[in-house]
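Priority: low. Protein: Aspartate carbamoyltransferase. Input follows.
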Amino acid sequence: MLHLISAADLSHSDAVLILDTAEELAQVGDRSVKKLPTLRGRTVVNLFFEDSTRTRISFEAAAKRLSADVLNFAVKGSSVSKGESLKDTALTLEAMGADGVVIRHNASGAPYRLAEWVRGSVINAGDGTHEHPTQALLDAFTMRRRLGRLADLRVTIVGDVLHSRVARSNVALLHTLGAQVTLVAPPTLLPVAVETWPCEVAYDLDSALPKSDVVMMLRVQRERMQAAYFPSAREYSRRYGLDAERMARLPDDAIVMHPGPMNRGMEIAAEVADSPRSTIVEQVANGVSVRMAVLYLLLGGSEPALGGGER
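Result:
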């Protein structure tokens, strides 16, 4: 059985297979009947220990379009909130015969542990500040659709890299797919050992923008911050926020991305978020197609396997 836990587990051919499959499956969304019988009889469990309406609904829509049965496991009010361990929860899912488990957890590494305890495929929907591989896949899918390629694209990822699993997964995946990634952030919002990542690091947003085909603004994750990482919201926005004046420094065909949810007026101005250059709404729609592709390839059983290690 195979899993999708880290974007770094995907080879170039794995990643391209997912993106190409997502392109085919995207056509289902244009049909009057948005369903395929592919995963009929399979059970997908959404196991979300952190709130995330957008990602959970996206996975649910993806599974249902492939005719899988979907069980949403609400942690609040469940045995977990009464102290049941992740292992006990895993054993319950195993007894129910879950074919796939989509897990979001506030502890980095939780999906790896879950994969040791269940026979079904485990898909990481975000673990702590570690990874969020399907977000990176949908971002790459969106870039390829808008710009026609990923090889040699100049992608600038801006903001709270320290707390961002989206940044980690994007750096790994985009490097695999041949893009050139630059992280731009205040030094306090860069992780330890970032110099070992396959990307460039810069501190000045204004000098990076003219050299960017894609600029991805990260949400400032105030809920994960227990310390003062920058002087004030106004100061952060002045130095690292993307407004209309800064957007004008981008090359003519460059696009603006954001994984959502946005702090409008902080890391991204409303006029930028709502501009024709913004792919933010497309990213949400593309997320369903990409997650359909991941579920199809992991649970369909008839295609070449994709990364994550065999068990």
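The domain at 7-131+284-299 is CATH 3.40.50.1370 (Rossmann fold). Residues 280-299 form the longest helix (20 residues).
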